[in-house]
Write a structure and sequence with these properties.
- The structure is a single chain.
- By secondary structure, this protein is of the alpha/beta class.
- The protein is about 35% helix and about 20% strand.
- The protein is built from eight helices and 13 strands.
- The strands form three sheets. The protein has a nine-stranded mixed β-sheet with strand order 4-1-5-6-13-12-11-8-9, with helices on both faces.
- Strand 2 (about 15-20) and strand 3 form a beta hairpin.
Length: about 260
Amino acid sequence: MTRNSEKYRPRIGITMRIELETDRFYLSRHYGEAVEAAGGAPLHISLIPNCEYLSAAIDTLDGILLPGSDSDVDPLRYGREPHQALGSVHSIKDETDLLVLDEIERRRIPLFGICFGMQVLNVSRGGTLIQDVPSEVPGAIKHEQGAPRDRPSHRISILEESLLSSLAKSDNAVVNSHHHQAIQNVGRDLVATAWTSDGLVEAIEDPRSDRFVLAVQWHPELGWPRDQFSQSLFERFVSEAEHYAQRSAAATPLGERVSNATR
């Protein structure tokens, strides 16, 4: 089955996490299940910060999902010293995701970022982060809701005429919340498109018309079977990955396609 096949499922790469205590790569099942339900074929990307490996892996992909993480982006990567409340930093996660983002930018491959994925995207574009919301943002609402994790716990306001508003079909929504860091300064070629009542950024988009880049601070992979907005996010992302696959197939010479098929 080729990329231009009628029943082709776009291949979605999802970078993994690392459990330092056991030296295991791992990932929550919910990301892959949400991608599959939206029509994609989820594939895991190991946290191996090697350019040749990542380039080869991404050659086979049509879209990339950068998921959440139980780590924080190293503040030295955006010119800050570590705050007292900084969480665990996993260098191998930072390095891999940033190299993947370099490939995404070069190839214009569709990107969907979630929580940590949104934060590392912002850092890759020269943006900065609030290292600890409770201690650095006076009057902040509760952004670490705890269990049950899929419960919508706070409202967001959405920028009119943004991609996000078209998917929400509204200028507001109620979402879950599981983070202690947030975007401080938005990076280049990105715009904020959603906020909480305390002013924190909840979504960013790349407004350039030749690519799809959307990232959210909440976790739409949690509770998606019961939430139309979450389903719409994944469905649009997978649809963009399908379009990318079709364009890639059209741009690949027939001889090269035949050669690849016989490997």
